[in-house]
Amino acid sequence: MMKNRLILLDNGHGEETVGKRSPVLQDGSQLFEYEFNRDIVKRITKTLDKEKIEYVVLVPELKDISLAERVKRANAHHAECGKHTCLISVHANAGGGTGFEVFTSVDQTKSDEFAQIMFDCFKEEFPEQKMRSDRLDGDDDKESNFYILKNTNCPAMLTESFFMDNLQDLKILMSENGRSRIARAHVNAIKKIVKL
User: Does the keyword Hydrolase apply (predicted)?
Assistant: First the structure.
C-alpha cells in the first residue's frame, strides 16, 4: 500500500436522515443522498484498491452516525497515521442551485490546497457543468464552519456533487455515467493529493 497519505472517506448521512432526498420523478424514482454518498465512496475505493492507495471509510454503517462520532473516528486515524492524512466528506447538494462545489474550514490551511486540486479535477471532468466557487481569498473553495471541517485535526474538505433538487443535475446524480464521472474526479484528485 502507498504510505504517502491516508485518505479518510466520509460518506455523510444515514438511511434515516430526513429530507436528504430528491423530488420524486415521474417514473416514481427518487435519489436518497445516503445511497448516493455510499455508492460514490464504494466506486472511489474500488479504484483506490487498484491504485494501492491507502484509505479508510469512516462510516461503513448504513445508519446515521453523528458528526461528533465521525470526527472522533477521523481524528483517531489521523493520530495513528500522523500528519499524512486527508479527509474527504462526500455529498450531493440541494437548495435551488446547480453545479459542483467544495468546502473547507475558514482561513487558509493545507485543506485549501487539497480542495483546489479537487475543484480542478471536477472542472476537468465536467467542463460542460457549472463550477461554484468563492475567489475572495484567491482560490476556488468555499469556506464554512461545517462541524466535520472545523473539528478534524487533519486537512479536510467536503464535496457537494451537483444539486439533487435540480432536474438537470439530478440526471447526472442518478445515471451510471454521471456517477462514474463523479467518482473518477474524486479519484483523480486523490491520486494527486497522496503525492504531496
Answer: yes
Q: How many other β-carbons are positioned within 10 Å of the β-carbon of residue 61?
A: 12
Judge whether 18 and 64 are in contact, CB under 8 Å.
Answer: no
**Domains: count for the chain:** 1
Kindly state the cell numbers that stand for 192: 494527486
Report the CATH number that the domain containing residue 150 is assigned in CATH: 3.40.630.40
Beta-ladder partners of 62: none
Residues paired with 2 in a beta bridge: 53
pLDDT tens digits, one per residue of 39-62: 999 999 999 999 999 999 999 998
Q: State pLDDT tens for residues 70-95.
A: 999 999 999 998 778 999 999 999 99
Per the domain annotation, does 10 fall within a domain?
no
Residue 68 lies in a domain: yes
The CA-CA-CA angle for residues 65, 106, 11, to 5°, reads: 25
Distance CA 92, CA 20 (A): 9
CA distances from 32 to 11, 24, 25, 63, 76 (A): 13, 10, 12, 13, 29
pTM comes to: 0.95
